[in-house]
């Protein structure tokens, strides 16, 4: 490759990464000072599933790109009060018009050394979501109820970067 080609590729990468912003960074895990938070994923059939995901902690988005699934991602948070954005995404079977999603804000105080998970359920036209203690499966936060809407269909738009030889 020529210098011009490297420069073009580097410039394209810089432009694309500049729009990403800063994602949430886990602090060092210390049971005396931190808690662990995870998302929840359930599936009861090929087209019937639900995910309750922590999308944002303290106004910083969670990066799930390095995880096999949202449920396997450990989010380490310092003990204390934090603001979260939770998303409930679900599908109720083949041909049901979904998948659907709802998002809402929640604040809660995390205790050091504990493990938590996001969870929820669909209640009529709303998604109810909360944080629960992983050991007891009992809710430890308020329950938020948010309306859901159908997710837009994905569209693929190829991006071509012309590179001269």
Shape: globular
- Rg, Cα atoms, Å: 19 Å
Count of beta strands: 11
Residue-averaged pLDDT: 84
User: Number of helical segments?
Assistant: 1
Beta-strand residue percentage: 35-45%
C-alpha termini separation: 8 Å
The class by helix and strand makeup works out as: mainly beta
Query: What oligomeric state is this?
Result: single chain
Could you outline the blueprint of secondary structure elements for this entry?
Layout: H1 3-18, E1 34-38, E2 40-45, E3 48-57, E4 60-61, E5 75-78, E6 80-92, E7 100-110, E8 115-123, E9 126-133, E10 144-147, E11 149-150
Parallel strand pairs: 1-8
Antiparallel strand pairs: 1-5, 2-3, 3-4, 3-6, 6-7, 7-11, 8-9, 9-10
